[in-house]
């Protein structure tokens, strides 16, 4: 996949520069010492959530063969070992729900994660049928978070989700989108509806959410999940061959992935960011953004200015 290949190139370029910084995020000692020390509360329940989770679009849409599934199994094992929790899926993501359900059951880890998926259809009964299918595929009697995907028929589905929550079929409910153009609508819903989560796009270069959506979610006590943190790999392509700035060590940043992720989670309105990967090394790198120091506002500006200049 193009964005994973681009990230590998960026990481390979960083490896040469890392000698000067004495940093190696992928060494065995770094992996064994890594702990997810940063968590944030889900405002509506007080439940604590590690700030880095796992997306499944593309990476988990695979067949039944061992060659395709074994790397994903290793990702899930390592994620649980290092304290990761939230796994995000959708019926839109092909076989991702089924693969996640199969592998977490096989690994006997299906009670160790926070399972989030979505309803992505039109019509009340169609939504109910699709959500029941998601429960079966993910091998769950109850879903931790059910979201209306890309606001499709959101008013219809949100009524159903509120009923399901009161009946105990879902623990949390939310809405999602992935484009700046949807932010104003998301904000209106955050302010007017009783929801637990809102999911949207946000990155160091794509900062429309900073205008008002992030603040609105924080003010209303709505947890925030961030998608598209790497802009589908465009950020890695932008820094290809470039060294991390020396001052990145001030924020315990050991890779470009951590640079991009720490910018996001340093905004305290963000509950969890969900970079997708099928590579254990990338997973360890991503989860590493959840430990150590975070940039303050001056540091965030320095990060923005640096990326604007590449």
From TrEMBL:
Coiled coil: none annotated. InterPro entries: AKR2_Oxidoreductase, NAD(P)_OxRdtase_dom_sf, NADP_OxRdtase_dom, TAT_signal. Keywords: Signal. Gene3D superfamilies: NADP-dependent oxidoreductase domain. Transmembrane segments: none annotated. Residues 52-297 form the NADP-dependent oxidoreductase domain. Residues 1-22 form the signal peptide. It holds the Pfam family Aldo_ket_red. The keyword Phosphoprotein does not apply. The keyword Metal-binding does not apply. This is Aldo/keto reductase.
